[in-house]
Amino acid sequence: MPPAAAPPGIVESVLAGGPAHDVLAEGASLRLDASPVDYVLVAIYFVFVLGIGLLARQRVSSSIDFFLSGRSLPAWVTGLAFISANLGAVEIMGMSANGAQYGMPTMHYYWIGAIPAMLFLGVVMMPFYYGSKVRSVPEFMRRRFGTGAHLVNALSFAIAQVLIAGVNLYLLGSIVNVLLGWPLWVSIIVAAAIVLSYITLGGLSAAIYNEVLQFFVIVAALLPLTLVGLHRVGGWSGLTDKVSGLKDGSQEIHSWPGNELSGFSNNFLSVIGIVFGLGFVLSFGYWTTNFVEVQRALATHSISAARRTPIIGAFPKMFIPLIVVIPGMVSALIVPQIAEYKATGKGDVKYNDALLYLMKDILPNGLLGVALAGLLAAFMAGMAANISAFNTVFSFDLWQQYVKKDRPDGYYLNVGRWATVGATVVAVFTAFIAGNFSNIMDYLQTLFSFFNAPLFATFIVGMFWKRMTATAGWVGLVFGTLSAIFIFILSETGVINLSGQGSSFLAAGVAFVVDVVLSVVVSLVTAPKPDAELVGLVYSETPKSLLNDPDADSLPWYQRPVLLAGIGLVLVIILNIVIG
Fold it and tell me: What does the pLDDT profile of the chain (580 residues) look like in tens digits?
């Protein structure tokens, strides 16, 4: 992270709770002079968002309609929503910040830290999720390991979602406050009201169809920014030449070995840290067990469509860094404030401000309105994804399971709507936690090392080893999480000194190993479930007929998950070789 003595950036000032007038004074140079046409474009976007919510409401007649879109959506829709749900404030702002700070090694978050896990989810894990007819990932945990692991997973997931949703909501309010001059409280209330409106009206269908719209709006916003930015620095060759001339620039134009990103000075250890910590534990832990993503696949109409959802999403995901990371790199060259901070570690901005300053410096009116709509779309997509996943887990896995059982379906539908309201209110307050992180990707990776890394260990062992017991399920989760928190404390107190996001990679690796070891040890001294109860939950006990649709063999080649995944894997290997 940048030196602690450096003054906070604009985003961090707001997240830290500074008075609005102080933030405006500090960010005066960043104020955008939006024209009426820019406001019209943003207003049109909001009209479409609310209109989708109203249309989706007509399809909501049961809790499954509200929480899982009646399991009726096509794979191309859920595939785009799968990616858009991940393109929130943390993704857009965090990855552009990483691009400005680390350069090309940021590509690892996509080509190592996303694509392989997404393909694995589609090929291996989605048949179990969808075939078991569970309504959430924690519900799968309950069927496999019982209520102990289920309660731990459901609670930790719910906490993580309001934490991350808070970042999306509060960043949205703070950026609108700085860029357009709206009062901070007005920005937050308007953003919260819009997201609340369409999710409460149309449930997951409204969220998913808005995420499809938001995907195209985000691309329409970031693509011109990337092209104009590259033109300013002399194209791709100009970018690499200028970055090479920076201090440590030679490490920023190649993704490997990524020493600054991993925090390891040794090249071999850096590669191991990125591949194991990010590429395996953090990545697989996030993409294969995070209900925010899995929920989109569960909304499809068949096992094959559910399997294709993350695989379809993997193809645009490969190219997202070209319009997110590269603008961050460009900003470090042509935005004076970012360039000064990168060279000296001093200044009144930080890397999280890179994309905002670039928008201010190079976009004319009209394109500025599209860019603003794109940022708003990104923040709302991320928040809506977190909230829609939270209300499902809260309603089914916590309220129905442990508070009020056997109530009519309409009762849980209303619980879900009230949970949406409650989560949004709580999310406003949770964002203040992120103010302690100068790069919000540090915050995100820390959360993932706490919650996702041990969860993935429990899942992967339990899915492929039938001997794993219910006791081992919750013991592994609890102590895996505690071990990640312990590493975080050691890092914060200076006992472990890793720069970049190396401490998160280490915490994730330790959590994974601790979870696996304890799961094995505890399983060997406790009684497992009978084999008959593991059908549909454990690979060796599940007939292949339950993992495929009856017409799977007659599907055309472009609808066959394994073939599509193979093509995706080849493409991402090529990208790693050509650009890495």
Answer: 332 222 233 333 333 333 333 333 344 456 666 677 777 877 887 788 778 877 877 777 777 877 777 777 888 999 998 888 887 666 787 788 888 888 888 888 899 889 999 999 999 889 888 888 888 888 888 999 989 888 988 888 888 888 777 777 777 776 667 666 777 667 777 777 777 777 777 777 777 887 888 888 888 888 988 999 999 999 988 888 888 877 766 777 777 776 776 667 777 887 887 888 778 877 887 888 888 888 889 889 889 999 999 999 999 999 999 999 999 999 988 888 888 877 777 777 777 778 888 887 887 777 777 777 777 777 777 777 888 888 889 998 999 999 988 899 889 888 888 888 888 888 777 766 655 555 555 666 677 777 778 888 898 899 889 999 999 999 998 999 899 889 888 887 878 776 656 777 788 888 889 999 999 999 999 999 998 988 888 888 888 887 787 887 888 888 899 999 999 999 999 988 887 6
Contacts of 580 (CB under 8 A, 6+ apart): 104, 107, 111, 254, 255, 256
Q: Which residues contact 206 (CB under 8 A, 6 or more apart)?
A: 52, 53, 56, 57, 198, 199
Please answer whether residues 501 and 263 qualify as being in contact, where contact means their C-beta atoms are separated by less than 8 angstroms: yes
Q: Out of 2.60.120.10, 3.30.160.20, 1.10.10.60, 1.20.1730.10, which CATH number does the structure's domain 32-579 have?
A: 1.20.1730.10
Asked if omega into 257 is within 30° of 0 (cis), the reply is yes
What is the residue whose two structure tokens read 């995706």? 568
Domain ranges of the chain: 32-579
Indicate the SS3 state at residue 227. helix
State the Cα–Cα distance between residues 104 and 111, nearest whole angstrom.
11
Contacts of 19 by beta carbon, 8 Å cutoff, 6+ apart:
none
- In a 13 Å sphere around the CA of 23, the CA atoms on its Cβ side amount to 25
Q: Which of 381, 156, 396 is nearest to 298 (CA)?
A: 396
Tokens read off for 493: 């107190």
Tokens of 296: 């989109």
Q: Report the distance separating Cα 133 and Cα 157, nearest Å.
A: 20
Distance CA 430, CA 498 (A): 26
* 3-class SS string, 306-333: HHHHHHHHHHHHHHHHHHHHHHHHHHHH
Which residues 6+ apart lie within 8 Å of 486 measured at CB? none
* Cα 207 off chain centre by: 15
| Best CA proximity match to 347, nearest among 363, 173, 232, 357 | 357
**DSSP reduced 3-state for 265:** coil
C-alpha–C-alpha distance, residues 263 and 497, integer Å: 9
Residue 509 near residue 567 (C-beta atoms within 8 A) = no
